[in-house]
Amino acid sequence: MSPRSARLARLSRSVTFSACHRLHSKSLSDEENLKLFGKCNNPNGHGHNYKVVVTVRGEIDPVSGMVMNLTDLKECMQAAIMEPLDHKNLDKDVPYFSEVVSTTENVAVFIWDSLQKLLPQGILYKVEVHETEQNVVVYKGEETIVK
């Protein structure tokens, strides 16, 4: 009998949270912000029902048959996504966004960074943030593009 080779798999779980924000950059004038962000620059903000899909990747454990226990993934997502973001004003209630524009791209980075602190090292594969049914950001931890 030959030993069975390791099998890799990806496991995804989703959550939905509601939050409001205002797209506004402190580096731009009010006129420039309005031109760049349009109605999303409304001083009173606007809200979304975000859907987040987190994907982890790893070897299927030969004993448990799992890449990761779903209960553990659920708990990490609760701590990294739901607790800091659900029913919040991203710009006012989440310190990260006091200096970072609360675009969906930056929400994805925030979630990635938060999950990295909680998940086993190297297991996080992808974070998808669905701002609307038409607008989705995928982040895989890349920090910069060398030019």
Category by helix and strand content: alpha+beta
H and E order: EHEHEHHEE
Number of helices: 4
The quaternary state of the protein chains shown equals single chain
Assign a percent range to the helix content. 25-40%
Distance between the termini: 51 Å
Tell me the number of strands: 5
Poorly predicted runs of 5 or more residues: none
EC number: 4.2.3.12
InterPro entries: 6-PTP_synth/QueD, 6-PTP_synth/QueD_sf, PTPS_Cys_AS, PTPS_His_AS
Function: Involved in the biosynthesis of tetrahydrobiopterin, an essential cofactor of aromatic amino acid hydroxylases. Catalyzes the transformation of 7,8-dihydroneopterin triphosphate into 6-pyruvoyl tetrahydropterin.
Keywords: Lyase, Metal-binding, Tetrahydrobiopterin biosynthesis, Zinc
Description:
By secondary structure, the chain is of the alpha+beta class. It has 4 helices and 5 strands, in the order βαβαβααββ. The protein has a single domain, classed as Tetrahydropterin Synthase, Chain A (2-Layer Sandwich). A hairpin with a 5-residue loop joins β4 (124-130) and β5. The longest helix has 16 residues, at 70-85. The model has no long low-confidence stretch (mean pLDDT 94).
Furnish the topology, listing elements before pairings.
Elements: E1 8-21, H1 30-37, E2 46-59, H2 70-85, E3 88-89, H3 90-93, H4 104-116, E4 124-130, E5 136-139
Parallel strand pairs: 1-3
Antiparallel strand pairs: 1-2, 2-4, 4-5
